[in-house]
Queue: 2 jobs
Job 1
Amino acid sequence: MKKWRLDFRIWHWIHAVVVLGLLGTVFLRKTFLSWRSNSELLTQKLSEINLEVTAEQAKMLAKAIRAPMWEWHIILGYALAALLVWRIILFFTQSGKHNYQNLGKETFHKKMVKLSYIGIYVILLFMAVSGLIIHFYETLGLTKEAAHDIKEIHELVFNAVLIFTPLHIIGVLLAEQRDEKGIISDMVNGGEEKKV
Ligand code: HEM
Ligand code: HEM
């Protein structure tokens, strides 16, 4: 029997792309497409061609430039929500629960790794629910202030995703080099379930 069934592998790789994509949109929002730095740039460049704009107008322009990119945060956000529902369904398959069985026999390190997977699932679930609430706050009858408060928490919890993702990638690369040869290719070709 394969260690990772095909549907689990497809889930893992689509999920990886979606989470990296979400982090990518946040990176762009906070760097190249930051309204703060771009509104200053617009004010300066427009004044060089004798067009004066107020700070409010420059902010509006900078946000308009950012908007098409940020739409991807929402699109990928919907994808993440759907992927988490898919992951819950996968928990009913052998591949989906395989990492969380016989935990008693695992080393301390392995227990921590598996605990970090459960932790990231809970965190991602929070990100999806809070993200959807901020996006649909009017439909849900929430005030702008309440949506803003939820956004602050969404933004704070984002740091956990930012920490987990590189740690996970470095972790599996190190495991591949050391005592878990084939750990990455197993997630590609399915690997073989170890006989107990
Ligand atoms: C792009 C580089 C990535 C590689 C090479 C990679 C590789 C792997 C491998 C080899 C495993 C199995 C590890 C084990 O059995 O303990 C795994 C599991 C996992 N990966 Fe990744 N991964 C990548 C990106 C991501 C990203 C961006 C996420 C999103 C947060 C992610 C989330 C997970 C989760 C949650 C599991 C646990 C699966 C389970 O429930 O059993 N991975 N990954
Ligand atoms: C891995 C998952 C996610 C991460 C890491 C993430 C990260 C972030 C961060 C850091 C911000 C604050 C940006 C800023 O103000 O500078 C933000 C805002 C936001 N996110 Fe997410 N997010 C995730 C998932 C989602 C999901 C699933 C949705 C739902 C569709 C969503 C919808 C939103 C919305 C509506 C905002 C507010 C944007 C605004 O104020 O204009 N996010 N997200």
Note: The chain is about 75% helix and 0% strand.
Job 2
Amino acid sequence: MKILVTGGTGYIGSHTCVELLDAGYEIVVIDNFSNSQPDVLDKIKMITRKDFKFYKGDVCDKEILQMIFKENKIDAVVHFAGFKAVGESVIKPLMYYRNNIDSTLSLLEVMNEYNCKKIVFSSSATVYGKPDKLPIKENFSLKTTNPYGATKLMIEDILRDLYISDNDWSIAILRYFNPIGAHASGLIGENPNDIPNNLMPYIVKVATKELECLNIFGDDYDTLDGTGVRDYIHVVDLSKGHIKAIEKVIKDKGVDAYNLGTGRGYSVLELVNTFMKVNNVKINYKIVGRRPGDIDACYADPSYAKEKLGWSASLGIEQMCKDAYNFIKKIEEM
Ligand SMILES: NC(=O)c1ccc[n+]([C@@H]2O[C@H](COP(=O)([O-])OP(=O)(O)OC[C@H]3O[C@@H](n4cnc5c(N)ncnc54)[C@H](O)[C@@H]3O)[C@@H](O)[C@H]2O)c1
């Protein structure tokens, strides 16, 4: 089985490439390195001791996609490529709509052309907006509060419409909660070049003194300690979810969405305190005002993914904190 992985040198994509290769799949990767580094390719090969084809290119570009499908017999696609920063999407909405929607349309058109109709798509818990109750189930109403989320919701609609038009498609929409952590080897992980948007990369940069202090946005939320609660999931667990989703789309036709989360929420302070404890390191932080658009709490009901995909998360918050720090320390040693 040959799987095309778009955005395969990115954070979740690289971990999923490792899991796919370890599970015995052949992979072909495309990425334009807009948010990743070429050396990730060697790291994936070092971890797995397996080789694969890579194409440097833009998924919006139909010509390179046609070349990939012509040169390789692709059985299914895992589509990660896209921009992902909520704040940036508010400032540069056109860039987000263009990249995320255009890449998906180009990909689906070329897949159709080559009669490859199995796809796993990276959606996000952001499509639930501010949920009325918790935990979040897949059948909750969908709404978003920012252009990034709108691109995810639009793509979900495109995929559902595509299936309605042609029942030969097999489509798994994976709604990720909050992936953190890194591969146990410490070779791949999340290391944004800019000031991080997400909590864990920020904590890590404060731990290594690259940044001075962590701002915690609000301690007056309706949660146990007042700080926001999220469903953090180890990126390796999340990546294993893609293997189950690939198995599903290979086996069954249809379109369906699955929450990939642990089902357990942790507050910002719980995460910071766990990080300090397991890594024996100090994190300077201060409480600042709420960030517009943030919600009190968000965590998944992951039972549908367990029932339909046979997947559930197994790694805990302590492992997530250890692995995230181990990855960054390895980079510093190099
Ligand atoms: N990390 C999260 O917290 C999170 C949560 C929910 C959903 N997601 C979604 O999961 C997917 C992967 O996220 P990630 O955290 O690995 O992000 P990432 O930025 O690390 O990876 C995305 C990869 O896609 C590449 N890319 C972007 N646009 C491209 C294009 N037009 N052509 C070719 N390559 C392109 C980037 O260079 C990068 O390597 C994204 O679609 C993201 O929206 C991420």
Note: Residues 49 and 194 are 31 Å apart (CA to CA).
